[in-house]
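Researcher: I'm comparing several assemblies side by side, and this is the next one on my list. It has 449 residues spread over two chains. Same procedure as the others: predict the full complex and return the structure.
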Amino acid sequence: MSREKTITLEVNGRQHCAAFPSHRTLLEALRELGYFEVKCGCEKGDCGACAVLLDGEAVDSCLTLAWTAEGRAITTVAGLGDRGRPHPLQEAFAKSGAVQCGYCTPGFIIAGVSLLRETPQPSEEDIRFGLSGNLCRCTGYRKIFEAVSEVAAADAPKGRK
Amino acid sequence: MVPDFDLDSPDRLEEALGLLAHGNGAQNVPLAGGTNLIVDIRACRVAPDRLISLSRIRELRGIRLAAKRVRLGGRTTVSDLMRSPEIAAHGASLVDSARVFGGQMVRNAATVAGNIACGSPAADLVPPLLSLDATVVLTSAAGSRTVALDDYFTAYKKDVRRPDELITAIEWDVPGQRCVNRFYKLARRKGDAITVTGVAVTIGVTNGICSKARVALGAVAPIVVRARAAEALLEGQRLTSALIDKAGRIAAGECNPIDDIRASADYRRHTVHMLTRRLVNDAWVQLS
C-alpha cells in the first residue's frame, strides 16, 4: 500500500494538490506549500503557535495529520485578512501593541477569532481561558487580552457598554 | 525520522470496524483527536502499522439524553462537553474537568474515548466518569459489549479493549436531583498542566442521610481508582466534619502514588486527603 499520496488541501479558499507521506503533519504540509505564517513551536500541543482554523474551529496543526485535513476548510492567519483589509482582531493587535517578536501572534489571533465566534462578549476569564493554549515568551499577555476585549466591545450591541 | 504508517479515514463506522477486524496481525491503532497519539508517534514511543482515523465518522460524535441515561459518542470532544446543557445538568464534574483540560486547540480536538483509551492515570475525564458510574460501549465488527469503566483498566496503560474494538460510546444514568458531582484538578498551574492529584466526588442525599458516595482518584495510582473504603464509610450516614475528615484520610490510604517530577508521593497522599474532605464537605453543605 502506498504511504505517500496526492491530496487536495483547501487553504484560505485556494485548492492545492500535492503529494505528502502519511506522517506529514498539517503544520509541515502548510509550510511546504508556502504558508509560513503558520509557525512551528513546541510540536506537541502546548504553545499554540501553529494554530489554524479547521472548518472554523481552532486546532493545533502540529497534532493534525495532513491527510485527515482533506475536504475541510483550512484558514491560516493570512486568510483572515491582510494589510489592506485586516481582520478587526489583527487591527486590534497592532493598535494595542499586542505584538513583540511576533512569533506567537498568528496562533493567538486564530485562537482569539475562534474564541470570539463562540463567545462574542467574553469576560476577562473567558479570554484567559480561550487563550490558555497559546504561549508568549515575550510576556505580552496583558495587551493581547486587551486586543480581544477591544474587538468584543466594538461588536457589542448599541446602547450597551 | 518518523516511521511510515498506513492511514485510512473511513466515512462510516462499519468500515472502520472492518479495517480493525482484518488486521492480519498488523498493529492497527484508532486515531481520534491525536493530541496524545501524534505526539507519541513523532517521539517514536509507538510505531503503528496502520492508523484508522475516526475524524470523518459523524455518528461517533454527540451527546444524547434518553430514558434518563446520558450517552456520549466516543468522538465527542472536550469542547463539546462544555457546550452541552445535558452535561452541565447531569455530569457537572466533566465540565469542571473540561475547564482545566488543556488549551483551546487541544480541547477542540481531544475526545472522550481518546482520553479513556490513552490509559493514563492522569487522564482528566476518567475520575469524573468513574464518579458517575459510567459504562464503556466497546464495538467490533462482531457486535457490541458494555463494560463498567470501573472494570475497564487492568494495570498501568492496560485495559480490556481488544485490538479489533473501538470505544463507540460512554453512558451513565442521570444522577438524582439531590446529588452533587464535582471534580478538582490540582496541578502546578491552572491551564495546560499535567495533573498532580485529581479527585472526583459524587454525593447523593436521601432524607438527610448520605445515600450515595463516590470518590474517584486520578494520578495517584497506576490507574484511576475509587476510594471504596471512604465511600463505604460515608454511605448510610448523616455526615459530620469528623466523619468527612476521616473519609479523606482513608481515601489517602487507598491510593498508591509515586514520586515524580510533578510532586512527591507524600504530597499526593496529603492532597487526596484534603481534596476529598473539601469536595465531600462542599457537596454535603450544598445538599443540606
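Model: For your comparison table: The longest helix of chain B spans residues 265-287.
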